[in-house]
Amino acid sequence: MKSDRDRSVRLLWEPPAEPTRGPKAALSQSRVVEAAIKVADAEGVDALTMRRVAETLGNTAMSLYRHVPGKSELLDLMVDAVWGETEHTPKGEWRAGLEFYARQVWAMYRAHPWMLQLTTSRRMPGPQAMTRTDAAYAVVSELGLSGEEIVAVVTTVGHFVDGVGRTMADRVQAERETGVSEEEWWNGRDALWEHFTPDRLPMMTHLWNSGSFERPLDEFEFGLARVLDGLAAFIESEERPLVRTRTCL
Amino acid sequence: MKSDRDRSVRLLWEPPAEPTRGPKAALSQSRVVEAAIKVADAEGVDALTMRRVAETLGNTAMSLYRHVPGKSELLDLMVDAVWGETEHTPKGEWRAGLEFYARQVWAMYRAHPWMLQLTTSRRMPGPQAMTRTDAAYAVVSELGLSGEEIVAVVTTVGHFVDGVGRTMADRVQAERETGVSEEEWWNGRDALWEHFTPDRLPMMTHLWNSGSFERPLDEFEFGLARVLDGLAAFIESEERPLVRTRTCL
DNA sequence: GCTTAACTGCTTACGTCGTACACAGGGTGT
DNA sequence: ACACCCTGTGTACGACGTAAGCAGTTAAGC
To answer: In this complex, do A201 and B134 lie within 8 Å of one another by their Cβ atoms?
Structure first.
């Protein structure tokens, strides 16, 4: 149990050492992870099987187990590898910084919608995700917030982006699964329409009829602006619920 | 394909009609859904198999298929049934209303952490979720916002709560999977600690050493207050990016 | 009443998944 | 040369979702 957990930590934080003896490996941990990411991107999370990943590499399923302990660990490695593609938040003004961070994460989720669909076996981010978070903490570290507040501020942004991302991922998945695009689906709403009666769903039917669902505001842009406004109010307020303390390095 | 989608809609929106002939069913759709929810609550999303659900009902796996088309549809029904447990947002002042809505959803996710872990086959909420959303829309409908803005405001709150919920669900899952509680895990951090070096993770190590991670602010409470503050700024601002129009019924 | 059609739940079976295990061949150390 | 460790493969097992077909049970139509 505990050794399992430790092994999992080592897997993420310590690069695999190359062996001196034995035949040169055609595969490698990073090649496996890379291939798995490609499969998930192209065919969705349901198609992400050990056999499928191995197939794209021209190997058998079991060959993967020489480079990766198991599927759930492979998922952990995939997630952290994708985090590695994002840029660190540069130092600077806090709002611009948090916005940069949010956009990076959002872009990551859009490029790899499966990120939020798979439940990783981790309790803690890997090194790539960690350094990104660290940089985000840094950008709000000079504001006189307490350590707890720094964490809370960044976490709030993270939660919002996770929420939007999750919704988007589900949409992408439904689209792939059914082969019906978002628009096509809403057009073939015959079976559904009769249930949208003003007495059961007054606001829904009203908003529907007024076309508010057809040209919605950008969920990410709108929400992010509001979240940052709310954080600004907190940061700039004279008397915060908790003590101000200098926590920057 | 399309008939599949229509069948899925009917499944959620039209209550199953009781047949006149044949033996009285010991099972029923709602009993199956109920049992499945209990299994997911008690044993987690991984234990949610057709055989396990049937077992708790004293039946065989295949008997479930008389009452539910398949597993993914069962998941849809479970999700909507849980939404049915929450209370509708009462009419009233917008901020209190949105806060009530957020707390309801948050309580729902805490009671059923699996809700955000399973990818449902829907592209659209079921009737229970719909009526809850409708009530939430209603509470911001008298503020002179446009229809698009009403949707965006409520969606923003929803995304935030989804984000926090998702994080919590992953924690619960990791706890169950490993049998190690959050505290126990952080205490046995030996294998991890050596990687927290000030040069790689300056803020992390600082926050860690200052104990900011040990007594974090409540992620939900803190974030919700900020999000609502941000929405308040938007709602109360004189000149919003988009037109004000009366959209209430 | 009897027949018939509808409906229930069960048994069996198939294909797919993750992966344990044993193995054959290649390459480095001694 | 040997021993050792490494590589990828083949086979196999148990668990999953679920298709198909089979009794047994009940109400509707004659």
So the answer is: yes
Is any atom of nucleic acid chain C found less than 7 Å from the CB of residue A166? no
Residues from chain B that touch A242, judged by Cβ atoms under 8 A, are: 217
Residue length, chain A? Answer: 249
For residue B42, give the H/E element and its range.
helix B29-43
Whole-model pTM above 0.85? yes
B14: which DSSP letter?
Answer: S
- Residue where the block lists tokens 């050794």: A3
**pLDDT value, residue A4:** 67
Three-state SS string over A212-243 comes to CCCCCCCHHHHHHHHHHHHHHHHHHCCCCCCC
Q: How would you classify residue B145: left for phi > 0, otherwise alpha for psi between -120 and 50, otherwise beta?
A: beta
> By mean pLDDT, which of A64-78, A154-168, B120-134, B144-158 is the weakest?
B120-134
Residue A78 pLDDT more than 60? yes
Q: Phi/psi class of residue A180: alpha, beta or left (left: φ > 0; alpha: ψ in -120 to 50)?
A: beta
CA distances from B121 to A81, A172, B105, B178 (A): 28, 11, 20, 29
Of how many residues is chain B composed? 249
Mean pLDDT of chain B: 90
How many CB atoms neighbour CB B193 within 10 A? 12
| pLDDT tens track for B78-133 | 999 999 999 999 999 999 999 999 999 999 999 999 999 998 888 889 999 999 99
Residues from chain B contacting residue A163 (CB–CB below 8 Å): 158-163, 166
Least confident among A24-33, A51-60, B193-202: B193-202
pLDDT digits (tens, 9 = 90+) for A177-226: 888 877 777 776 666 777 888 899 999 999 988 988 888 899 999 999 99
The protein residue nearest D27 (Cα–C1') is: B21
Burial classification of residue A3, based on how many CB atoms lie within 10 Å of its CB (0-12 exposed, 13-18 middle, 19 or more buried): exposed
**Cβ neighbours, 10 Å, residue B195:** 17
